[in-house]
Write a structure and sequence with these properties.
Immunoglobulin-like; single chain; six-stranded antiparallel sheet; seven-stranded parallel sheet; alpha/beta; elongated
Amino acid sequence: MTKIRGDIEEAKGNVQEELVPETEMLKQRLEWFQDLKFGVIFHYGLYAEAGIVESWQLSEKDEWARENHPYRETIEALRLDYWQLINQFEPKKLDTRKWAKICKDAGFKYCLFTTKHHDGFSMFNTMESEFKIGGKLSPFKRDILQEVFTAFREAGIATGAYYSKADWYSPFYWLDDDTVKGRHASYDTHLHPEIWARYVSFVHRQIAEITSNYGKVDFLWLDAGWCGQGKEDLQMDRLAEIAREKQPELIIVDRMMGGRHENYVTPERKIPALAEIPKKVWESNIPIGNDWGYVPNDTFKSSQELLETLIDVVSKGGNLILGVGPTPDGEFTFEETQRLEEIGHWLALYGEGIYETRARPTAWKNEWYLTYQKDGKAHFAFRSIAAVACEQIPLTEIGATEEDELIDLATKKPLPVYKNADEPYLLWSDISQPNVGAVGIRVSTHREKNTH
């Protein structure tokens, strides 16, 4: 079994059966969300300047984050120098319209932007802290969140805010003392309720800013899956009310916490097996590289792997969100840009079988993956170009019959059907072969319901 990374929290549960005021609204909104299928998440902040795995090295107890490339030799020097990065983080080449153009061409339908990671550095113009982009100590006098949301909305891409409920810079979360600091609040909140109350108020006010000052927000993606309940009670019902005062159709994702405010679940760095598919609406989140944020000399997944991941996830009923980590200058890396371009080229031809589809998760023979139109009049069959060669494709392998119309998604032309001992089949050589990704076939039944 692969060792779980230190930055992945275990889920606290994922089923919420109780009817709540937002139940009917969420039914419609989650249907819309499932139509989108493909999103991008940006982890961007001071950790890009440091070139380390997001802000995890600041947590003394999270030793895994410093094992290979510690930012500084001692935790004291590390924190001191990291906090000072506010003075030099200045992404002069940042062009969010260019970001949006690349992402639109890549086929992304929604984006999430990191407004604040666990380090507490706000990537928006908060009035609650000077530890922010554009603040008195920051040389970059622009509101990055505003620019991202504006550019992506103009490109027709839905927008969402990632927000860490933990804040290691806040004096109300990590006390300014000599105690060993980990990912949790550094004090017993039951013994110091007055300090914790100030932290809760701080979080609520920042959530109000994000959901009131930046136009339409489709998603609030809350991270730090150890914070929000028990000793770190953030009064989540009230937080959600505040968030939806200006965003009544907001989808809230209180990651890994279960219950009312985890509107959909987010398997991290994994694709659920057929037996593990969540009961709730779900979204696999996977970085293009090894880490979410920018790290020099990162290892990147191939376009082939990423497209196979997308097809696998969608065929099981999920959405896929890919992580992009812009450079300190504000650009995408060459590798990320190249992958996104190749993915976009494939989706331009085959996206009909990805977007607005639904799943009937089944293990099909010979590595075929199927998706279904919502009206049941057609389904789509995909097979990786990297799969083991098979010249003849029995129609049963793709859930088709001789009466169905079989269309090559790349050319939109019918595929001829052959017979061998009364078993109809296709020839692999008749199907268009993309340079990357998978072949795709539309199976149209022209009947009210599709059967296989």
